[in-house]
Please model this.
Amino acid sequence: MDGLDRFLNTFFNGAIFARYLPDMLAGVWVTIWLAAAVIALGLTLGLLLACLRSYGNRVVNLCIIVFADLGRALPPLVLILIMYFGLPGLGVRLSGPLVLILVLGFVLAAFAEEIFWAGLTSVARGQWEAGRATGLGFTQTLIHVALPQAIRLAIPPLVNRVLAISKMTALGSVIGVSEILAVASTAQSFTGSAAPLTMGAIAYVIVFLPLVILTRILEHRYAWKV
Amino acid sequence: MTRPMLELVGLNKRFGDLTVLHDIHLRVGQGELVFVIGPSGSGKSTMLRCCNRLEEPTSGSVLIDGADITACSPRALNKMRLNLGMVFQGFHLYPHMDAVGNVMLAQVKALGRSKDEARARALEMLDRVGLRHKSDAMPSALSGGQQQRVAIARALALDPKVMLFDEPTSALDPELVGSVLAVMKDLRTSGMTMLVVSHEMGFAREAADRVIFMDGGVIVEEGQPEAIFTNPQAERTRAFLSRVRG
Model:
């Protein structure tokens, strides 16, 4: 019994939960809007880049490929530290949340571009030919024929990537963005208790579990209707 | 012959060192059904695809009702293609749209019709190919023959001057071929100008005005269906026909 008490007291201390609940709620809100901004930036930019790539300009495509490969190769934390601690040396001072949104947004865009592009390349050549043969221009065929099919193919890998990137908002704790993990670890160092960290974990589950369930619904909805 | 609706003048197509089409001359008169036969790799599909520049000819020109499609800007090309309905071996219906949506898309986006106008026209065309009752079916819920008829309706809805058929029944189960051929016969009767690449010799005999035999990228022989099938002049034609008949 003594062991169980110690366990509960370490990880589930009710008094500490109560004391830090307001801070934690604020952190949850910060995590949610950070994630929303990252998703909006990343998906929009990724989709635009994939579309741009389909026009087949060699110089443009080389730039897109370099961007996508760097974005996927570099650990986001490295980019975050460079932008937050490095750029001020050049006189450019960006706020923590802005750095986080830009870096994670670009990283998501790099992955999203590749996923949308994979979707576009797997649209059958005959679909393009059918569109063009009926007098549709390249852009019209892209928008009305190829993209809807590519997006459906892209959704399952895309939602997994979106989830992975959204959770990386926790990296904000390194540059003083008061999202869930930052609130939890601050509270942990004040109290010397692991309870705030448990609280953070619970907060993450509450925020992201509905998103996981939502993605299941989306995957189902975007499957081909017969 | 009536005035040519489709005219190929000195058409050449090369892929690197390989000559696929060599100096093709062909005139298809208004309301005429010209049927193209020949062994696989003879260039007949490439010739058809050069007509609307899905395949870019290396040299020569293609005239649609007198207008040169091979010498026009990309924007003008999109407009010119509206005059050429194309039916593919693999149907190529848009899988994310129902039948009526498939027939509407280019009407709205390329021809500039209103959605109501396009829908009415689409239903009319689906009725013509016997599929009005399937107007809200997705392509995956249609048989091959039904998909091909929707594809024909999609092309017809744009009021083309010429219809190009690229082996329209080759991907179909034998029992579904008849429904597509019936639609093609109906088109023939209504006076549509048609260029058909196909292996349906029975249909050629029954409905074609002229049969063209191609081999090795050239037109070897052409004439009335009866003459080509019963009394071919060229040795290559004879050899091909005897192989096809088995």
Q: What stands out?
A: Residues 95-159 of chain B form one domain. Chain B has a mean pLDDT of 95. Chain B is about 40% helix and 25% strand.
